[in-house]
Specification:
alpha/beta; eight-stranded mixed beta sheet; two-stranded parallel ribbon; single chain
């Protein structure tokens, strides 16, 4: 509520290219949304464009300052959107950035959007994908300390994520094109150098998952050395990469194409996309936030919904 998320949402409602392509609903506290629109000198959303949820006391709402109140309000908005998507009242959800510390201040134990979406929608299997025109990465582990990553890696989990990555790429394949190709990163420098630079994760955990995927008929290669997995030549070989941990995928993606990067949660019974950046508290309520990622996430959600409708029909 106190970052750039609400401004980005209002910008979508002012974009004719977006509003011609889809009917948008903005979830959040009506008082806060109207207050922000007035502050920016923009028109407030029409009644049919706004779903009023979450409570905000305007006397305590400050630009760039999060607290338990703003955390609870943003959480309530996400919950309402998820429930409407599960009920089939909306075709997709596009989430703005959240301040995870605000959720924590409000006593909300969920680490972030992805975990909440999976829990609330009853997803049996899910994974976080970060994508841009330059690169698409699906993560095996997400918001955990780096020290915990090796012990969290399991062959069955990596295989599950490979399948989710492959299935997503296949949905966007044009008829007649070759099958999707998935590149799977190793964990250690030089993909472990056959155990010389690892504790055997590549040989004992990652390689068996890759072999199992190949036995299922998938076109998969790896373990790839992480320091060369995202070069131009490597990106040309693969449609999508599977990464072992958060920064392994996000650092190259944001370096290559920060403004157009988006977040997609794979495996949910609903469609969810999001920006891949933070709340930018220093830019809040100034009308200066760059909406490129938000627009890209919305366009991706629209395209996924169309393909889902075509697939179901």
């Amino acid at each position: 509520m106190s970052g750039i998320g609400p401004e980005l949402s209002l910008r979508l409602l002012r974009d004719p290219a977006i509003t011609r392509a889809a009917d948008l609903r903005l979830y959040g506290p009506q008082a806060a949304i109207y207050h922000l629109a007035n502050t920016l000198g923009w028109a407030a959303p029409a009644d049919e464009q706004l779903v009023d949820c979450g409570e905000i006391d305007l006397q305590h709402l400050r630009a760039g300052q999060f607290d338990a109140m703003t955390g609870a309000a943003s959480h309530a908005a996400v919950i309402a959107a998820i429930d409407d998507a599960v009920a089939g009242l909306v075709d997709a959800i596009v989430t703005g950035p959240i301040q995870k510390e605000a959720w924590h201040a409000a006593g909300i134990p969920t680490r972030g959007h992805t975990e909440l979406l999976a829990q609330r929608s009853g997803a049996a299997s899910h994974a976080m994908m970060l994508a841009s025109p330059a690169l698409a990465c699906v993560l095996v582990t997400t918001h955990i300390p780096l020290a915990f990553v090796p012990q969290q890696l399991r062959s069955d989990e990596i295989l599950r994520v490979i399948h989710l990555a492959h299935d997503h790429a296949a949905r966007f394949r044009v008829a007649g094109e070759r099958p999707p190709r998935v590149g799977v990163c190793g964990l250690n420098p030089h993909a472990g150098e056959h155990g010389l630079m690892s504790c055997g994760e590549e040989e004992q955990i990652i390689a068996p998952a890759i072999q199992a995927a190949r036995e299922c008929g998938l076109h998969v290669d790896g373990p790839l050395s992480p320091d060369t997995a995202f070069t131009a030549a490597s990106r040309a070989l693969f449609d999508i990469h599977v990464c072992m941990y958060h920064d392994q995928g996000l650092i190259p993606l944001k370096t290559l194409d920060f403004d157009r990067g988006i977040n997609v949660t794979l495996g949910l019974p609903i469609i969810r996309t999001s920006v891949d950046h933070g709340t930018a508290m220093d830019l809040a309520w100034q009308g200066a936030a760059d909406a490129t990622s938000m627009k890209a996430a919305t366009q991706m959600a629209i395209e996924m919904a169309r393909r889902e409708a075509g697939h179901s029909g």
